[in-house]
Amino acid sequence: FRLHGSAGEEPHILLECDSSVLEPLQKHLKLYKIRRKVDVAPCPDLSLWAVIPGEGAGDASGSVPKRAGQAVLLTPDPRAGVMGWRLITKKGANPSEIIPGSRVGDVQDYHRHRYKQGIPEGVKDLPPGVALPLESNLAYMNGISFTKGCYIGQELTARTHHMGVIRKRLLPVSFSAPLPEDGIPEGAEILTESGKAAGRFRAGGGDLGIALLRLAHLNEPLCINVGGDKVRLSASTPEWWPKTAAK
């Protein structure tokens, strides 16, 4: 997020990241400073909130009632309209006072919402060195530029994009009850009814999650073997995807 107001002002960029990789990310960014006068530092005095639209709100890219003076930043979530807004405040601020009519929910409410919409986030959903950008649908979420200059992985990403052949994608999945007491293991292999490998479960909560699946098996009955029992699941294509996706 750009925090400077005018072209003449010193640029300030605020990055949002998985807290578990805060230190490695800082080291990575400092590696590429190369004698530039750039300061890279964490912001422990700030709090991040997700403002999720109510049920049936559809695309949430419009306006939201607010008292913006109390917010450091309030902007539409850049990934997808169904994810509402990102709100950044000073530590201790009450988001209900900034956005009248809102209520403070549980963080699990947020995770269930994004799993339902098939939105990956953090190192569990996107393991470093494992998750490929196009298979993770980042091209649908303003996460990839096909016009900027060189970056690590650009050649493979651009070639795959222009060839238009993506056989696996991250998809939202839902499980049939009953679920194992300890939940579904992350990285568990997903199989078709006939026992063919269809993909792998990435992460989730309760009866919802996200999995990397072969698109050829999208509409088939699927299962995961957990402790000798078959846990059945189904996958779906998110409604916010481009109409030409997964074809």
Describe the structure.
The protein has 247 residues and is of the alpha+beta class. The protein folds into 3 domains: 1-42, no CATH class; 43-105, no CATH class; 133-235, Elongation Factor Tu (Ef-tu), domain 3, CATH 2.40.30.160. Helix content is 16%, strand content 23%. The chain is built from 5 helices and 9 strands; from the N terminus they run αβββααααββββββ. The chain has helices at 22-31, 95-98, 107-117, 122-125, 154-163; strands at 46-51, 73-76, 85-90, 168-175, 189-192, 197-205, 208-214, 222-226, 229-235. The strands form 2 sheets. The protein has a 6-stranded antiparallel barrel. Strands 1-3-2 form a 3-stranded antiparallel β-sheet, with no helix packed on it. A hairpin with a 2-residue loop joins β8 (222-226) and β9 (229-235). The longest helix is centred in the middle third of the chain and has 11 residues, at 107-117. The chain is globular, with a radius of gyration of 20 Å. It starts with 21 loop residues before the first helix and ends in a 12-residue tail after the last strand. The model has no long low-confidence stretch (mean pLDDT 88).
Question: How do the strands and helices of this protein lay out in sequence?
Answer:
Elements (H helix, E strand, L loop, with lengths): L21 H10 L14 E6 L21 E4 L8 E6 L4 H4 L8 H11 L4 H4 L28 H10 L4 E8 L13 E4 L4 E9 L2 E7 L7 E5 L2 E7 L12
Antiparallel strand pairs: 1-3, 2-3, 4-7, 4-9, 5-6, 5-8, 6-7, 8-9
